[in-house]
Write a structure and sequence with these properties.
Blueprint: E1 4-10, E2 13-18, H1 23-38, H2 45-63, E3 87-94, E4 97-104, H3 124-131, E5 134-139, E6 145-152, E7 170-171
Parallel strand pairs: 5-7
Antiparallel strand pairs: 1-2, 2-3, 3-4, 4-6, 5-6
């Protein structure tokens, strides 16, 4: 993992610091796969990885000001001050749920735009909303924010009650 550093003190709470480069999205997906495999939760990988990719892309695009993260050269540095917080992805497993959280240096919360299905971008939060049970964001003390998404990690096939989408877009101060 060339662009990230994994931190773990509790085997059910793991974090990876991501470099502010386009490889961060791939690193986040690899980190997510290894973590979910280690927890025996391979069946939710696709949903969690898609959401992780969207949240990291949003952090690169909006928090670090890289309007085209996929076109940022590998050697390019962040467009924020040197003392800014890094982008970090964290996964928390508290049965029967998994939380995917991405923190970044911007204190501005995410805003879902009106869906434009012919645009090349702008649907990320709609995907987060569709593939997670709920999501939201919290400002961090001092500066920055964390955007999180909650997933049901039950091993049985989800029933109608588990597919409920209530409580989305919560923000706590």
């Amino acid at each position: 993992m060339s662009t990230g550093t994994v931190l773990a003190t509790d085997p059910h709470v793991v974090s990876c610091t991501l470099a502010p480069r386009f490889e961060a999205v791939r690193t986040a997906r690899e980190f997510t796969r290894r973590t979910l495999d280690g927890w025996g939760l391979e069946e939710i990988f696709d949903d969690v990885a898609l959401v992780a990719s969207e949240l990291v892309t949003n952090a690169l695009r909006h928090a670090l000001g890289q309007s085209e993260p996929s076109r940022v050269p590998a050697q390019s540095g962040p467009q924020v001050s040197a003392d800014a917080l890094p982008i970090r992805i964290s996964l928390v497993h508290r049965s029967p749920q998994v939380v995917c959280a991405v923190s970044d240096p911007s204190s501005t919360g995410p805003v879902a735009r009106e869906a434009d299905f012919v645009a090349e971008s702008g649907r990320g939060l709609h995907l987060v909303d569709s593939f997670s049970r709920s999501w939201g964001w919290h400002p961090l003390a001092g500066a920055g924010k964390v955007v999180w998404a909650l997933f049901d990690a039950r091993t049985a096939a989800p029933g109608p009650a588990q597919l409920s989408n209530s409580g989305r877009h919560r923000r706590s101060a």
